[in-house]
Amino acid sequence: MNEIRICGNCHHHNGISLLECEECGLDLSMVIPVDEDDIPQKEPDPIPAPATSPCAHRWGIAIGEGASNITVIEDRLKVGRENSPLAQHLNKSKFISRNHAQLFVTDGKLYVLDASTNGTYVNNTRIQKLESAVLNDCDEVRFADVSFKVVCMGAD
Which of 25, 73, 113, 152 gives a 20 to 30 Å CA spacing to 99? Predict the structure, then answer.
């Protein structure tokens, strides 16, 4: 019997003692451990899935007005008080978690994944913890009490 915690974001199998995913840094403290032997083994697909084409758009997130305040999201961006390009804005709040959320681009779409206690909101609607939501150009995304605007910056 070997208990593990499976990350709800990247599905990495983490040791039982880890409270943060080794791959993506997501908070695992609320993830219920499972026995590794109970996880069904997935059969490989007989036909490989077609490759997805990369997005022709670049995404960013801005606070305030002006292009100098845009943080570009290349692939994945950690949102939190520590080790985040947004930390200078987030550290002003006492409600932001250390690993509050993640912004990531998949198949040309921008997503936000909440991993916090005090919530992540898209256009004033709270998303469920450990669930992701699609973001669109001009959406407001709020991490606890700090708001940003989603910016689609056009083609690469």
Answer: 152
